[in-house]
Amino acid sequence: MSRTRHRRTIAEVGEFGFLARLLPRLPMTRETVVGPGHDCAVLRCGRRKLLVTVDAVVENVHFKARWSSPRQIGRRSFLVNASDIAAMGGQPRFCVVSIGVPPRYSARSLLQLEAGIVDAATASGAVVVGGNLSRSEQLFVSVTLIGDAPRRLVTRHGARPGDRVYVTGTLGDAALAVERLSGRAGAKVAPPVLRRLLEPSPRVRAGQILADKGLASAMIDVSDGLVQDLGHLCRASRVRGVIRATDVPVSVAYRRACGTERRLALSGGEDYELLCTVPARHVKHLEDVRRQLACPITCIGEITRGRGVRIVGAQGGVVYESTGGYDHFRTPTT
Amino acid sequence: MSRTRHRRTIAEVGEFGFLARLLPRLPMTRETVVGPGHDCAVLRCGRRKLLVTVDAVVENVHFKARWSSPRQIGRRSFLVNASDIAAMGGQPRFCVVSIGVPPRYSARSLLQLEAGIVDAATASGAVVVGGNLSRSEQLFVSVTLIGDAPRRLVTRHGARPGDRVYVTGTLGDAALAVERLSGRAGAKVAPPVLRRLLEPSPRVRAGQILADKGLASAMIDVSDGLVQDLGHLCRASRVRGVIRATDVPVSVAYRRACGTERRLALSGGEDYELLCTVPARHVKHLEDVRRQLACPITCIGEITRGRGVRIVGAQGGVVYESTGGYDHFRTPTT
User: Fold this and answer.
1) Which of A292, B180, B196, B230 could bridge across to B189 with cysteines, CB 3.0–4.6 Å?
2) B130: which chain A residues are within 8 Å (Cβ-Cβ)?
3) pLDDT the model gives residue B247
4) pLDDT digit string (tens) for B238-294?
5) What are the backbone dihedrals phi and psi of residue B101, each rounded to the nearest 5 degrees, phi first?
6) DSSP for B244-294?
7) What pLDDT does B303 receive?
């Protein structure tokens, strides 16, 4: 019995199952304000607090070379990290880049990939300060991003019953693009939908405002899908999230492609929007700063006592009550 | 002509050729004390200076699963980074880990790999504060290590004509182990030689003493091979390094296997010793602190005017004058 369990593969245990076993074993220090298991670690550095996050994009897992230009791959590898910094209300500052590249890969493409990282970093106010290049059969780009923490730190922990649940921008476009691109050859993908997959825009400015003005009680970025990421937030805060499916914001292109169907908007990953909870007393204040966010923000539900995530349909009935979404070892994106 | 050049692969351009094209394109900020192209970046963080470095180990490039246990792979992935921090005299503090892992990899092995990282971090006074797990066909572990800079920063830049060249420990064991393991099945590798490959010990304490006491004018770790790494140091300092081949320290096991042959000690990589230059006026002081270093340190040559690296043989003649060593895209380790 014990032998059988020991031989289970990562695919069987799943990413989150693995992390649940790993995280309690990691030691902490006084300088670690927030440790592993969050969007970013928070470290004390003298009187400053630093955010640190790492994320990798891997060929044929997170991107396909025939869909994405080298520059887009580079941009994306930075932006998925900037999204983690945004989710804690921080400001990206420095990054180091670890690239694994097949020997046959063209030097010009690799320069373009690096240029994509530098472009995205510059646009976010960050600089590339170092890196490493390794030989590898499969192209991968792992970016570590260091940022400044906001004055008021926002984590996944602070949601309370009665808080409203908000999401920035629209959801589902990235998953829709993946579904179309993975289907029959010749399937059409509307350009704005494709752009959401290939060139995500992290909500750095919105995250800073939501954190610094004390509006968000908890925050996370939507990388694994709304249901799954809301699940993470609710688990950390020990509350239940109730979402009205019809209120989940989708793009015009998504509505044109999917009608009233919200499956991809609810469970598709890689939109890199921000999901946050706002105490009822701050909703008026949020309306006041709405314009400064540089993106739409929509109330999609509320936090109640309980656990898990509940999705309510158009008729008011519960259409979904579970966790779901994206696990790197179970549901391939591409 | 121009088209042909643009299509060159990374294997043809080589890692250092690629970096020579990339590095001038990277922007800097006021907070970047030392930018890309060094063992670590040095960042200003309030009144502190931080060192940041990243390095990846990739299956079948930097290790083979049949030679190394998961724990050894984990330890190694940390230690190669600690060696970069040691080369600037710093103290490892925080690390984040990006792992790419095949779905069929066992969860137990991955926990052991993580335990190897945590062990090595703890032994160096550092903690693991975050990470990321991706699906990947080939196992890779990319560690980003953040450290405290020493009061006196040592880089590759400060070597001057007249300085002595020193190296810690012994060289060549790791390359000898790779050569034996890659050869005919059944080739014997002495356990201390194998250990040097599988469980390198970065010279963190020695690096701190050499930096803080102002002994080393320039320093680098020997990861790509003595000739190549001395070449990097000499290029950065705009000087020539002259090495007496017979003075290069080797282990008893190496001498037993190779006799007076010094090829692997001169050009083999992955020993993770420190190579530094010491001004002649500090040689006496170095003798005084020798015992505190916790490892042997040997004078192997000196710095002169000129460029490049020169190796002098037993008879006093020049036996080698060039660069060489290890390029990830040209000379596979394994």
Assistant:
1) B180
2) 35-36, 38, 40-41, 52-54
3) 96
4) 999 999 999 999 999 999 999 999 999 999 999 999 999 999 999 999 999 999 998
5) -140, 135
6) EGGGS---HHHHHHHTT--HHHHH-----EEEEEE-GGGHHHHHHHGGGGS
7) 98
Of A10, A26, A140, the CB nearest to B103: A10
Residues of B in contact with A60 (CB under 8 A): 137
Alpha-carbon gap: B147 to the closest alpha carbon of chain A (Å): 11
CATH 1.10.132.30: does it fit domain B15-148? no
Minimal Cα distance from A99: which residue of B? Answer: B56
Mutate to test the interface with A, among B5, B134, B148 (most CBs of A within 10 A): B134
Q: Which residues of B touch A45 (CB under 8 A)?
A: 45-46, 48, 50
For B126, phi then psi, to 5°, come to -115, 165
Q: Are residues B127 and A45, on separate chains, in Cβ contact within 8 Å?
A: no
The CATH architecture of the domain made up of A164-321 is Alpha-Beta Complex (3.90)
CB < 8 Å to B332, chain A: 135
- Under 8 Å between Cβ of B242 and B302: yes
Rounded to an integer, the average pLDDT of B8-31 is 82
What homologous superfamily does CATH list for A2-148?
PurM-like, N-terminal domain (3.30.1330.10)
Stretches where chain A sits below pLDDT 50 are 1-5, 324-334
Domain spans, chain B: 15-148, 164-321
Cα distance between the two ends of chain B: 35
Task: Name the 3-class secondary structure at A203.
Answer: coil
Tokens in use for A127? 């600089």
Tell me whether residues B134 and A107 touch, CB distance under 8 A: no
Task: Give helix A204-212 / helix A70-86 axis angle, nearest 10°.
Answer: 0
Question: What pLDDT is stored for residue B2 in this prediction?
Answer: 45
Tell me if A2-148 shares its fold with A164-321: no
CA of B248 vs chain A CAs: smallest distance (Å): 28
Partner-chain residue, chosen from B41, B105, B142, that has the shortest CB–CB distance to A130:
B41
